[in-house]
Amino acid sequence: MGTLPDGWIRQEHVLAVGAETLAADLLHGPVNGTAQTLVLHGAGQGDRQRQWPLRQTLAQRGCASAAIDFSGHGKSSARLPNALSKRLAEAQAALDAFTVAPRTVIGVSMSGEIALRLACRPENRIGHVVTLVGAVYDGAAFDLPFGPSFSAVLRRPDSWRNATVLSLIGRYTGRLTLIRAREDAVIPAEVAELIREHAVAASACRIIDLPGVDHRVSERSQQDAALREQLADLILEQKYQESTEA
Question: Considering the domain 9-235 in this protein, what is its CATH number?
Answer without folding.
Answer: 3.40.50.1820
